[in-house]
Amino acid sequence: MKRILIVDDDPEIVGSLAMLLAEKYEVGLASDGLTALQRMKSGDYDIILLDLLMPGLDGAGLLRELSTRSDTIPVILLSAARDLEVRARDLKISHYIAKPFHIDALEAQIERLIGPAPRQVRP
């Protein structure tokens, strides 16, 4: 099963995304960049869903840290920042979705980046 790391400090967004995506993916959660780095040490993730504005190590800081690593993990920025397109371009991130967003749009981007989730076989 493909693994997604959701990095966001808003418990409602994290909870909703985790509930919706857990049907198709294994989901890890982090409320800031430092926690995300710890989660990444304990397991490989196929993609990161990343908020920009968080306390402590924010999304931009986490991206800077990830850029020093040899492994590359696709990232989708999820943010309510008014200048999201400019910030994404400055951070060299080509995949972003403005909050609020529709889950179908997010799932489509996830599938474009890491492929479709395996189909569930029902008895």
Structural class: alpha/beta
Approximately how much beta-strand content do the residues carry?
A: 15-25%
The main β sheet shows up as:
5 strands, parallel
Instruction: Give the integer mean of the pLDDT values.
Output: 91
Write down the overall geometry. Answer: globular
Q: List the domain count as a whole number.
A: 1
In CATH's first tier, which class applies? Alpha Beta
Q: Helicity range of the residues?
A: 25-40%
What does this structure look like?
The chain is of the alpha/beta class and 123 residues long. The chain has one domain: Response regulator (Rossmann fold, 3-Layer(aba) Sandwich). It contains five helices and five strands. It has a five-stranded parallel β-sheet with strand order 2-1-3-4-5, with helices on both faces. Helix 4 links the parallel strand 4 and strand 5. The chain is globular. The mean pLDDT is 91.
Q: What is the element layout, followed by pairings?
A:
Elements: E1 3-7, H1 11-21, E2 26-30, H2 33-41, E3 47-50, H3 59-67, E4 75-79, H4 84-90, E5 96-98, H5 103-114
Parallel strand pairs: 1-2, 1-3, 3-4, 4-5
Write a compact overview of the structure shown.
This protein is α/β, with parallel strands linked by helices and 123 residues long. It has a single domain, classed as Rossmann fold (3-Layer(aba) Sandwich).
